[in-house]
Design a protein that fits this description.
This protein is α+β, with helices and mostly antiparallel strands and about 100 residues long. The chain is built from five helices and three strands; from the N terminus they run ααβααββα.
Length: about 100
């Protein structure tokens, strides 16, 4: 059985990666509104995902205003798929143990 990726297992980080699998890019303000997090909390979670190699962060400016976009990496897609597979294995094992 695969181990659960603790970076992904945190609910906010799982939500961030799940959202990113469905879009090309998502920006900081979108995540603030969608996830209902504080700026610092969102930044902290994205930083952990970025350090794990799961998310690319692109910073730019719109005029004088900073703009930050996020994109899931191929490593992030694979890690998330592995995470779901590990959960499925846990569910299957608990189902097998419950029916014995």
């Amino acid at each position: 059985m695969n181990d659960i990726d603790r970076v992904i297992h945190e609910p906010v980080r799982l939500r961030i990666l799940t959202v990113l699998t469905g879009v090309d890019l998502a920006d900081f303000n979108f995540f603030l509104a969608t996830l209902g997090l504080s700026r610092g909390n969102l930044s902290s979670h994205v930083d952990k995902l970025q350090r794990a190699g799961y998310v690319d962060v692109r910073k730019s400016f719109n005029g004088k205003l900073p703009h930050t976009d996020y994109q899931i990496t191929e490593n992030g897609r694979k890690a998330l798929a592995d995470y779901w597979q590990a959960l499925d294995q846990i569910r299957a094992a608990s189902h097998d143990n419950g029916s014995a």
